[in-house]
Amino acid sequence: QVQFVESGGGLVQPGGSLRLSCVASAGIFSLYHMAWYRQGPGKQRELVASIRVGGSVDYADSVKGRFTISRDNAKKTVYLQMNNLTPEDTAVYYCRGARMGNDYWGRGTQVTVSS
């Protein structure tokens, strides 16, 4: 029923910044726990950051201090601000919404960090 669409990916040099967005097509967005995942070449998908219904946030150790997750329930959008990017951040980034034991995934957006 609900669909999520990511945007904002692209090519950036090391030390640069990007802001990713993920918009929900329907549903009561404020009831979904939201998260960003990423999958680099030859690697498994990993959790990057999450923001729950109550507003609490968590980050992977590798991105703490550099990435910030936020949400705007009125716009049905979750954001990921990424600063001080490194080549290790290169991956396809996916947003996920979770509600009542079900997961809903976007198709992903490519982030490439290279000089």
Give descriptors for this structure:
mainly beta
Summary of the model, kept short:
This protein is mainly beta. The chain has no helices and 11 strands.
Strand content: over 45%
Radius of gyration: 13 Å
The helical percent reads under 10%
Q: Could you tell me the number of beta strands?
A: 11
What's the total helix number?
Answer: 0
Order of helices and strands: EEEEEEEEEEE
Q: Which regions are unreliable across 5 or more consecutive residues at pLDDT < 50?
A: none
Largest sheet: 7 strands, mixed
Kindly, what is the distance between the CA atoms of the first and last residues, rounded to a whole number of angstroms? 40 Å
Overall pLDDT score: 97
* Sheet/helix structural class: mainly beta
Give the CA-based shape.
globular
Written account of the structure:
- There is one protein chain.
- This protein has strands at residues 4-7, 10-12, 18-24, 33-39, 46-51, 57-59, 67-72, 77-82, 91-99, 102-105, 109-113.
- The chain is 0% helix and 52% strand.
- β4 (33-39) and β5 (46-51) form a beta hairpin.
- The chain is mostly beta strands and 115 residues long.
- The radius of gyration is 13 Å and the shape is globular.
